Amino acid sequence: MQLNETIEIHYNKAVLGLFFCFAVLFFIGGFVLFTIPPEYEKWSLSFHFVSKFSLMGVGCILLGLFGGNFLLEKLRDKSPALVIDNEEFTINKDEPIVVTWGKIDRIETQISTYRSEDSEYKEKLLVPVLKNPEEYLSSTANKFLSFADKFGLDAKVGPPITISTKALECSFEELKRILETKLQDYKNQHPVKGD
Predict the structure, then answer these.
(1) Coil, strand or helix at 120
(2) For the chain, which end, N or C, has fewer CB atoms within 10 Å of the first or last residue's CB respectively?
(3) Averaged pLDDT in 10-residue chunks for the chain of 195 residues
(4) 31 Cα distance to chain centroid
(5) Residue 12's closest CA among 167, 166, 188?
(6) Cα separations (Å) of 45 from 61, 78, 98?
């Protein structure tokens, strides 16, 4: 890897397309649930004019619409999901997250576990450990997210920045190697005084 190389990592369009198909299925399933006549319900809610299936149908329709819209925007988007250069890396979301290498202490691996009754799914996440997380949170453009992140940080729920490779065109090991190499290159070029 060249020292002055800028690396762009794009979204994996096949994975996003699969998620988009699931969003369409949610929308169709919600429409089916919404149209089920109330006499097929075994129990009713306290609202006699609204059926349980209608409420679930509306929820599925909204989830399918918003999720499908978000995924369709990402499928059409030509910009990279992650841009890594010598001074910073940028995560392109609704509002891009820009983090300079000087604010990062190290890169760690975190494993998130999702459990259901009969299965367990583990996902590896990359966590850039910030030297001063409070400074990062106060500089976040979206004040609601800044407040939520600060609450999560105080409650020890999780770090302010995590990177998942699930929808990227890059493996976990490769991205971890790239981030660690760029961070080490930055530290070599900008040694901390007193070390």
Answers:
(1) strand
(2) C
(3) 74 92 93 74 53 82 92 89 89 80 89 82 87 69 53 54 87 92 89 65
(4) 28
(5) 167
(6) 20, 46, 47
Long-range Cβ pairs for the range 154-159 (8 Å, 24+): 158/110, 159/110, 159/127, 159/128, 159/129, 159/130, 159/133
State how far the alpha carbon of 101 is from the alpha carbons of 48, 52, 96, in Å. Answer: 58, 51, 16
Coil vs helix vs strand at 97: strand
Q: With a threshold of 0.85, does the pTM exceed it? A: no
Which strands make up the sheet holding 82-84, listed edge to edge? 7-9, 82-84, 88-91, 97-100
**Bridge partner list, 38:** none
